[in-house]
Design brief:
This protein is of the alpha/beta class. It has four domains: 198 residues, 3-Layer(aba) Sandwich (Rossmann fold), CATH 3.40.50; 175 residues, 3-Layer(aba) Sandwich (Rossmann fold); 100 residues, Orthogonal Bundle (Arc Repressor Mutant, subunit A), CATH 1.10.10; 76 residues, DNA polymerase, domain 1, CATH 1.10.150.80. Strand 3, helix 5 and strand 4 form a beta-alpha-beta unit.
Amino acid sequence: MSAAMQRAQAILKEVFGFDTFWPLQEKVIAHILKKKDALVVLPTGGGKSLCYQIPGMVFPGLTIVVSPLISLMKDQVDQLREYGVPALFLNSTLSAEEYRANVAQLREERVKLLYLAPEALLAPGTLALLSSLTVDCLAIDEAHCISQWGHDFRPEYRQLAAVRAAFPGAPCLALTATATPRVQEDIRQSLKIDAAGQFIGSFNRPNLFLEVAPKSEPLAQTLALLKRYPGESGIIYCATRRQVDALHATLHRKGYSVLPYHAGLAEQERRSNQERFSRDDVRIIVATIAFGMGINKPNVRFVVHYDLPGSIDNYYQEIGRAGRDGLPAHCLLLFGYGDLQKVRFFIGQKSESEQKVANILLSQLLGFAETDLCRRVPLLSYFGETAVPDRCAMCDNCQPGEEKQALVDLTVPAQMFLSCVKRTGEIFGAGHVSDVLRGSTAQKVLQFGHDTLSTYGIGTATSAKQWRHLSRQLIQKGLLLYSYDHGSLKLTPKAWEVLRGKEAFLGSIEAAPKDRDAALKQGGGEEEAYDAGLFERLRKKRKELADQANLPPYAIFHDRTLREMARFCPRTPENLAALYGIGERKLEKYGEAFLAIIGEHCRTRGIPEP
């Protein structure tokens, strides 16, 4: 091992409190320390930041980190300072005095990592300042923003390729968590990174439980999930500002600790709401996709998609905010065909060429939502990952110790539904067809004279929920076409084969029950075996210390660290230092306070020292 890598290994333990590098980290860091360019694709929570932070501490000069959001760079700088790493940022949130003070530190070579937005780096004044300094590395975070095929394309990112010439001695490190093979190639070509410098990790996030549920009663479904995570942090994504405001108002009325976030709010209110969420002052954020990349909060235990996201890229990016600490987290997507009309509306606002791409992305998302396979098969395949197991035990289609529900012959109810679709003129949705089958006296049924049809009232033995579930299967299996514009159903040629009795239809009349708790517990492994009471006392102390330091709680310690304290009950600084994420600086600053709580807890309960 080279001297530089020995120093990197020492920093990993002494500063960050980790014993070993995660997959690919060591290879990437060794590559960068040789002053070679690299493209790194690792999932959220996969340790991308250390790939430039550790070389930045080993190199004698400055490492520039390009970050797309001001909130994200402030959060990262705050965390680095807690570790004792000299880092700062230059952006518009600084006062003139603060800006001058930071520039003075740079000129005095007292800074190892400098965070800048792409626009700030491109500014002539910034380039002039940096030209007088020794720049040893250029790290570009969220590098998918470079690609026009990426989901967050930003023109300023495209211009970063030209900036490289200003730092000829600095290797370029491009990092992202979401990049299809096409986007990866685009990044490499734009930044002129050789194929030998490409490091692609698995996109799999094994601690995330992936669930897609039919969107029948979205509010009730969301409330049911919230009841399972009392006091935990979570994000609920909605498609529109109006939906965000309505859902936030409902949850607030029901007593939940919740705030809204969307582009219609004043900038100060958005910033305040995000900060309160990051600091655990509020537990739940209801947001549009405007609640984006600036979320570095590791203890998000659930993400709900109340509405359908626009693409797999968006979905993956948004669920990526859950479980960043490696502990189990729940990702629920409520899937209703009516939501497709909203997505189609947004797509219709784009240019013709953009619409073509967006429709392809939407089709791929539907394939994920409608699959009977393990959810990770289409999800990971989308990102070019082929070595995917058939079962993951952490999605609603793969339950531990539970095989999929056996299909039964549903030819007769399928014929009823298809016949009713035809007799009502193929211009209505599943809800109206269900009403006719169940003999409803709803105004719409009577208005169109559908109470006189031969199919009226022939399906009263089947619930409306069961008919809706059957309709989704008929769509998924290609017997019905769903009109995105009008929400209507039309028969396909395959439907006539079933109607005429030439083919049987196999399916399930109700969705199979899901043992989500068992899956999440399995996903947590031994992490779940900790004293919950002690964990809460430690969490309360962490919040107190964080408020005093004006920091988010996770900048003190992650939940995973607190859970290990509550599991192993260390009594000495040496034993405490052996836990996840406790380096020398944090042991010195916070060790005594947390050891006191653990010691008192053990004495009160008569727990002997190990």
